[in-house]
Protein backbone atom coordinates (compact mmCIF):
# COMPACT_ATOMS: atom_id res chain seq x y z
CA UNK A 1 0.00 0.00 0.00
CA UNK A 2 1.14 3.53 -0.73
CA UNK A 3 -0.21 7.00 -0.08
CA UNK A 4 1.23 8.05 -3.44
CA UNK A 5 0.52 7.13 -6.99
CA UNK A 6 4.01 6.44 -8.32
CA UNK A 7 5.92 4.70 -11.07
CA UNK A 8 9.49 3.39 -11.22
CA UNK A 9 10.62 3.14 -14.83
CA UNK A 10 13.83 2.20 -16.70
CA UNK A 11 14.62 -0.57 -14.25
CA UNK A 12 16.96 -2.08 -13.26
CA UNK A 13 19.87 -0.12 -14.73
CA UNK A 14 18.73 3.51 -14.71
CA UNK A 15 15.70 3.60 -12.40
CA UNK A 16 13.61 6.77 -12.60
CA UNK A 17 10.98 7.55 -9.95
CA UNK A 18 7.84 9.51 -10.86
CA UNK A 19 5.49 10.53 -8.02
CA UNK A 20 2.04 11.97 -8.73
CA UNK A 21 0.96 14.32 -5.95
CA UNK A 22 -2.61 15.34 -5.20
CA UNK A 23 -3.24 18.93 -4.20
CA UNK A 24 -1.86 19.42 -0.69
CA UNK A 25 0.34 16.31 -0.72
CA UNK A 26 4.03 16.49 0.17
CA UNK A 27 7.10 14.36 -0.38
CA UNK A 28 10.61 14.90 0.96
CA UNK A 29 13.78 13.93 -0.84
CA UNK A 30 17.55 13.98 -0.77
CA UNK A 31 19.02 17.15 -2.25
CA UNK A 32 19.90 16.90 -5.96
CA UNK A 33 17.62 13.86 -6.42
CA UNK A 34 14.84 15.86 -8.12
CA UNK A 35 14.98 15.65 -11.92
CA UNK A 36 11.81 17.56 -12.87
CA UNK A 37 8.50 18.83 -11.50
CA UNK A 38 5.30 20.50 -12.60
CA UNK A 39 4.85 24.23 -12.05
CA UNK A 40 2.14 23.66 -9.44
CA UNK A 41 4.66 22.01 -7.10
CA UNK A 42 6.81 24.13 -4.80
CA UNK A 43 10.10 23.11 -3.23
CA UNK A 44 11.44 24.18 0.16
CA UNK A 45 14.83 23.24 1.64
CA UNK A 46 15.63 22.92 5.32
CA UNK A 47 17.05 20.89 8.20
CA UNK A 48 14.46 18.21 8.96
CA UNK A 49 14.31 17.12 12.58
CA UNK A 50 16.76 19.70 13.87
CA UNK A 51 20.52 20.07 13.71
CA UNK A 52 21.52 16.85 15.51
CA UNK A 53 19.39 14.58 13.32
CA UNK A 54 20.59 16.41 10.23
CA UNK A 55 24.23 15.84 11.27
CA UNK A 56 23.43 12.17 11.84
CA UNK A 57 22.10 11.85 8.30
CA UNK A 58 25.26 13.53 7.00
CA UNK A 59 27.42 10.89 8.70
CA UNK A 60 25.19 8.31 7.03
CA UNK A 61 26.17 9.57 3.59
CA UNK A 62 23.22 11.92 3.01
CA UNK A 63 22.92 15.70 2.91
CA UNK A 64 22.08 17.59 6.09
CA UNK A 65 19.46 19.48 4.10
CA UNK A 66 16.25 17.88 2.84
CA UNK A 67 13.98 19.19 0.12
CA UNK A 68 10.21 19.13 0.68
CA UNK A 69 7.93 19.24 -2.36
CA UNK A 70 4.38 20.49 -1.82
CA UNK A 71 1.66 20.25 -4.47
CA UNK A 72 -0.30 23.49 -4.50
CA UNK A 73 -2.22 21.79 -7.30
CA UNK A 74 -2.08 18.23 -8.59
CA UNK A 75 1.09 17.40 -10.49
CA UNK A 76 4.13 15.17 -10.65
CA UNK A 77 7.71 15.32 -9.48
CA UNK A 78 10.45 12.97 -10.70
CA UNK A 79 13.61 11.74 -9.00
CA UNK A 80 16.80 10.31 -10.50
CA UNK A 81 19.03 8.49 -7.98
CA UNK A 82 22.78 9.01 -8.27
CA UNK A 83 24.02 5.42 -8.78
CA UNK A 84 23.37 3.48 -11.97
CA UNK A 85 20.92 0.96 -10.63
CA UNK A 86 17.46 0.25 -9.32
CA UNK A 87 15.03 2.01 -7.01
CA UNK A 88 12.85 0.30 -4.39
CA UNK A 89 9.65 1.28 -2.60
CA UNK A 90 9.13 0.24 1.03
CA UNK A 91 6.08 0.97 3.23
CA UNK A 92 7.40 2.00 6.64
CA UNK A 93 5.03 1.23 9.53
CA UNK A 94 4.92 1.55 13.29
CA UNK A 95 5.58 -2.20 13.49
CA UNK A 96 9.27 -1.64 12.70
CA UNK A 97 11.84 0.32 10.76
CA UNK A 98 14.35 -0.35 8.04
CA UNK A 99 18.12 0.14 7.98
CA UNK A 100 19.82 1.62 4.91
CA UNK A 101 23.45 1.67 3.86
CA UNK A 102 25.01 5.11 3.47
CA UNK A 103 23.83 7.01 0.42
CA UNK A 104 20.83 4.73 -0.28
CA UNK A 105 18.05 7.17 0.66
CA UNK A 106 16.10 8.84 -2.17
CA UNK A 107 12.72 10.11 -0.94
CA UNK A 108 9.97 9.53 1.63
CA UNK A 109 6.67 10.68 3.08
CA UNK A 110 6.74 13.47 5.67
CA UNK A 111 5.68 10.87 8.26
CA UNK A 112 8.94 8.93 7.82
CA UNK A 113 11.94 9.93 9.95
CA UNK A 114 15.37 9.19 8.47
CA UNK A 115 18.19 9.44 11.00
CA UNK A 116 21.77 8.28 11.34
CA UNK A 117 22.37 5.27 13.59
CA UNK A 118 25.81 4.51 15.01
CA UNK A 119 26.84 1.04 13.89
CA UNK A 120 29.85 0.69 16.17
CA UNK A 121 32.88 -1.41 15.27
CA UNK A 122 30.92 -3.58 12.83
CA UNK A 123 30.08 -0.46 10.85
CA UNK A 124 33.76 -0.15 9.95
CA UNK A 125 33.36 -3.15 7.68
CA UNK A 126 29.92 -2.23 6.30
CA UNK A 127 30.84 0.80 4.20
CA UNK A 128 30.39 3.39 6.94
CA UNK A 129 30.34 3.74 10.73
CA UNK A 130 26.85 5.25 10.56
CA UNK A 131 23.88 3.56 8.90
CA UNK A 132 20.55 5.24 8.16
CA UNK A 133 17.40 4.17 9.99
CA UNK A 134 13.92 4.98 8.68
CA UNK A 135 11.04 4.85 11.15
CA UNK A 136 7.49 6.20 11.44
CA UNK A 137 4.71 5.61 8.93
CA UNK A 138 4.62 6.25 5.21
CA UNK A 139 6.48 5.56 1.98
CA UNK A 140 10.23 5.20 1.58
CA UNK A 141 12.20 5.01 -1.67
CA UNK A 142 15.82 3.88 -1.74
CA UNK A 143 18.34 3.18 -4.49
CA UNK A 144 20.93 0.54 -5.30
CA UNK A 145 24.02 0.19 -7.45
CA UNK A 146 23.01 -2.45 -9.98
CA UNK A 147 19.82 -4.48 -9.81
CA UNK A 148 18.20 -5.37 -6.50
CA UNK A 149 17.39 -8.76 -5.00
CA UNK A 150 14.95 -9.17 -2.12
CA UNK A 151 15.68 -11.98 0.32
CA UNK A 152 13.34 -13.33 3.00
CA UNK A 153 15.64 -14.28 5.87
CA UNK A 154 14.27 -16.84 8.32
CA UNK A 155 17.42 -18.04 10.07
CA UNK A 156 21.05 -17.22 9.18
CA UNK A 157 22.16 -15.59 5.94
CA UNK A 158 25.59 -14.39 4.80
CA UNK A 159 26.23 -11.44 2.46
CA UNK A 160 29.46 -9.72 1.45
CA UNK A 161 29.19 -6.35 3.20
CA UNK A 162 29.62 -4.30 0.02
CA UNK A 163 26.45 -5.82 -1.47
CA UNK A 164 24.10 -5.03 1.42
CA UNK A 165 21.62 -2.23 0.63
CA UNK A 166 18.92 -2.40 3.29
CA UNK A 167 17.36 -4.69 5.87
CA UNK A 168 14.43 -4.63 8.26
CA UNK A 169 15.35 -3.89 11.85
CA UNK A 170 13.87 -7.23 12.94
CA UNK A 171 17.16 -8.69 11.71
CA UNK A 172 20.34 -8.70 13.78
CA UNK A 173 23.69 -8.66 12.05
CA UNK A 174 27.36 -8.98 12.83
CA UNK A 175 30.59 -8.92 10.85
CA UNK A 176 32.25 -12.30 10.72
CA UNK A 177 34.26 -14.55 8.42
CA UNK A 178 32.90 -17.16 6.07
CA UNK A 179 32.12 -20.44 7.81
CA UNK A 180 34.88 -23.01 7.52
CA UNK A 181 37.85 -20.63 7.34
CA UNK A 182 40.74 -21.67 9.57
CA UNK A 183 42.45 -19.18 11.89
CA UNK A 184 45.35 -18.57 9.49
CA UNK A 185 42.97 -17.91 6.61
CA UNK A 186 40.98 -15.50 8.76
CA UNK A 187 44.11 -13.48 9.54
CA UNK A 188 45.09 -13.35 5.86
CA UNK A 189 41.54 -12.32 5.00
CA UNK A 190 41.70 -9.43 7.46
CA UNK A 191 45.13 -8.21 6.33
CA UNK A 192 44.89 -8.67 2.58
CA UNK A 193 41.78 -7.16 1.07
CA UNK A 194 38.99 -8.42 3.32
CA UNK A 195 38.04 -11.45 1.22
CA UNK A 196 35.93 -13.65 3.45
CA UNK A 197 34.53 -10.89 5.69
CA UNK A 198 30.75 -10.99 5.51
CA UNK A 199 27.63 -9.76 7.27
CA UNK A 200 25.83 -12.55 9.05
CA UNK A 201 22.13 -11.80 9.42
CA UNK A 202 20.02 -13.60 11.99
CA UNK A 203 16.31 -13.61 12.73
CA UNK A 204 13.33 -13.07 10.47
CA UNK A 205 12.82 -10.20 8.06
CA UNK A 206 13.54 -8.86 4.62
CA UNK A 207 17.00 -8.07 3.27
CA UNK A 208 17.89 -6.29 0.02
CA UNK A 209 21.19 -6.85 -1.76
CA UNK A 210 22.55 -5.26 -4.95
CA UNK A 211 24.07 -7.08 -7.92
CA UNK A 212 27.06 -4.74 -8.15
CA UNK A 213 29.38 -3.05 -5.65
CA UNK A 214 31.20 0.26 -6.12
CA UNK A 215 34.48 -0.91 -4.57
CA UNK A 216 34.68 -3.95 -6.85
CA UNK A 217 33.94 -1.77 -9.89
CA UNK A 218 36.67 0.71 -8.91
CA UNK A 219 39.16 -2.14 -8.48
CA UNK A 220 38.24 -3.47 -11.92
CA UNK A 221 38.56 -0.05 -13.61
CA UNK A 222 41.81 0.95 -11.90
CA UNK A 223 44.24 -0.98 -14.19
CA UNK A 224 42.72 0.75 -17.24
CA UNK A 225 43.35 4.30 -16.01
CA UNK A 226 45.67 6.40 -18.17
CA UNK A 227 49.05 6.90 -16.53
CA UNK A 228 51.52 9.70 -17.04
CA UNK A 229 54.78 8.72 -18.69
CA UNK A 230 57.68 10.62 -17.12
CA UNK A 231 60.14 9.65 -19.86
Description:
The protein has helices at residues 51-59, 183-191, 214-221, and strands at residues 5-9, 16-21, 26-30, 34-37, 41-46, 66-71, 75-79, 87-92, 98-100, 105-108, 112-118, 130-136, 138-143, 148-153, 156-160, 164-168, 171-177, 197-203, 205-210. It has one domain (5-218): Mitochondrial biogenesis AIM24 (Double-stranded beta-helix, 4-Layer Sandwich), CATH 3.60.160.10. The chain has a six-stranded antiparallel beta sheet with strand order 5-6-3-10-13-8, with no helix packed on it. The chain has a six-stranded antiparallel beta sheet with strand order 11-12-9-16-19-14. The chain has a four-stranded antiparallel beta sheet with strand order 1-2-7-4, with no helix packed on it. 11% of the residues lie in helices and 46% in strands. The chain is mainly beta.
Q: Give the overall average pLDDT.
A: 82
Q: Sheet bearing the most strands, described? A: 6 strands, antiparallel
Question: For this structure, what is the CATH class?
Answer: Alpha Beta
Based on secondary structure, the structural category is mainly beta
CATH architecture title:
4-Layer Sandwich
Along the chain, the helix and strand elements come as EEEEEHEEEEEEEEEEEEHEEH
Shape: globular
Total beta-strand segments = 19
Determine the CATH topology: Double-stranded beta-helix
- The N- and C-terminal alpha carbons lie at a distance of 64 Å
* Percentage of residues assigned to helices: 10-25%
State the fourth-level CATH superfamily. Mitochondrial biogenesis AIM24
Percent of residues in β-strands: over 45%
Amino acid sequence: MSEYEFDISHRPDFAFLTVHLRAGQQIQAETSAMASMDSGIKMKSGLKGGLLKSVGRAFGGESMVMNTFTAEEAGEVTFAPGPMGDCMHYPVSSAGGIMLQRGAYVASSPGVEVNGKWAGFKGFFSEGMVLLKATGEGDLFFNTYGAIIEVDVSDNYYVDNTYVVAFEDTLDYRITTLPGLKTGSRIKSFLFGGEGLVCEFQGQGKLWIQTRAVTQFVNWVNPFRPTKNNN
